[in-house]
Structures are given as C-alpha cells and as structure tokens.
Design goal:
Layout: E1 4-6, E2 13-15, H1 40-58, E3 71-73, E4 77-82, E5 85-90, H2 105-120, H3 125-131, H4 137-142, H5 148-155, E6 163-165, H6 167-171, H7 185-188, E7 201-203, E8 209-214, E9 225-230, H8 235-245, E10 249-252, H9 257-262
Antiparallel strand pairs: 1-2, 1-10, 3-6, 4-5, 7-8, 8-9, 9-10
Helix pairs in contact: 2-5
Amino acid sequence: MTDLLARPATRSRFELGKNRKENHPWEIRVVKHPPRTRSAHFVAARKTAIRILEEMQADDDELPYGPGPWEMHHGGSLWVKGDAGWRMYRARVGVEWSAQFCADPAKIDRLRQEAADLITGFPATLDALDELGYKRARKLLDTPIEDADGVEAWTDSLFNSCVPLTTPDHSGVLPKAAGEHHYPWPIKAADYFRYDDFQLWVTLPDGTNAGVTPVGRRGSGEGGLRIVHARHGSAAGDAVAEAQRRHMMAVVPPDSPIALAAFEQQIPRGARTAAGPLHTRRRASTGGARGGTPR
C-alpha cells in the first residue's frame, strides 16, 4: 500500500518522500517507584462515585461510559444531581494524579470555581452528596486552592478523580484497546459515540496502529478513510504530520486493507472495496474490548 495525501477539495495525490531519522540519540529508563497509596480524599471520592453509579443502575439510568467493573480516571468528573437524576459532566481539563506535581494552584483554583458555577445550577447536588456521606463537597467547592495541599485535595476529589472507565478504556494499549491515558482525546472520544459497526482503530501493514475516520457521511458510498492518528516515526505518522503541515488530509483509498478493515461490518463479505452502498451485518463478538482492532 502506498500512503497518499489528498487535498479535501481536489483530491490531488502525491507519494511521500523517505522517512526522516532522529540525529540525536536519547534514552529512557523504566524504574521502580514507591508504592502509590490512595489518599483519604480519593478513598472518599471513589466510595461516593460507586454509590452514585449503583443508584443510577437501580434507576435504570444510562451510565456515563457503560457498565463496570470501573476504574476511576482522574479526568475531571463533575457529578451533579438534577430532576433527571445523577449526571456526570467533564471539566474543562482533568488533573491526572501525577500531573498535580507540576500544577499551579491558581490554575487549579479556576477549575474549582468553574465546578462550583456548574453545581450552582443543580441545587440538589450538595444535599444528595451529604446523604451519600460525601460531606467534604461543600468545603472543597468553597475553599480557594492556594498550595500543594489544596491541589492534592482537588486532584483526588469527586470533582476530578472519578470518571468511571473500564480498564481497556482507561489504560488499554492497542491492538487490544485504546485507553484515554495513551491516545489523544479528540480521537479516543469517538469510541464513545461512533457507530458500533465502524472500526475506529485499525492495524496498519507495518504492524502499527492508527485511528481512522470516514471521509464522507454514513451511506455516502465514499469508502475512503482519513488517518487522524498514527504513531510518530511510522510511515503513517509521517503522512499525517506532512498533511498537517500542508493543510491537507492523509487518506487511504477504499480498496486498501485499512479501509476494508474499518468498514468490515458495513460491506458485503469478500468485498474488494469499501466504496458502495451501505451493507450492515451483525458480527459475532470476539470477546475483545471496545476499541480493539479487528481480526
């Protein structure tokens, strides 16, 4: 397969040049670190989040990211309770646990203020959290963050640390699954709203993985794919980077193995191109996690 770049309008194509190599070697060391302990802030937040999720299940409410078992992701979890029950919104940014050590308290305090503004619109929230035993919520929302202790309390609070994800969606690595910790959020987010019969993550001929999106709307018959994420230093990664520099798109044609894999459940068995009328079909479960690459 030849990697191609195409202008969105004219679709003029050209082949890529040779791959570039790094001139300055570097190294990284994988080391052991002291065991990470759960802070009292996080223990209380996680306990409360589990109770909220169990309450949502009992009420047959739709869960934010599907059924458990869950791991709690420090992704900016703004839990509120309104007339329709519990809901979780995402903060402007989430504070990953290790990122707290480079966090400016004044910038984290802005997140606190924004959370407080949102929760003001859901006046039942704080009383409901009191009933669940999370009585520290009011203090967290009302106390300005001015130092590392304040940053830690916010980082491990219910309003940051409790995005309920499965292990694959939280920390999975392709080809099994694309976890939020390892793949860009603008691409990973599509895992939560894509059609079930479209494969967002595919394996490329060189064995690396990429995130792809259709070049046209569903049913258009286009069949081509845009590569929206690929490993840096790979052929596809170079294509994406060059396309970005030239204000173009890195695309693959509908008869490529990549397109056939991504549209596998939308085309007839044995089809040699992904272009053509939409042909939906059920596919037996492989037992893999959502977001995994096709067999």
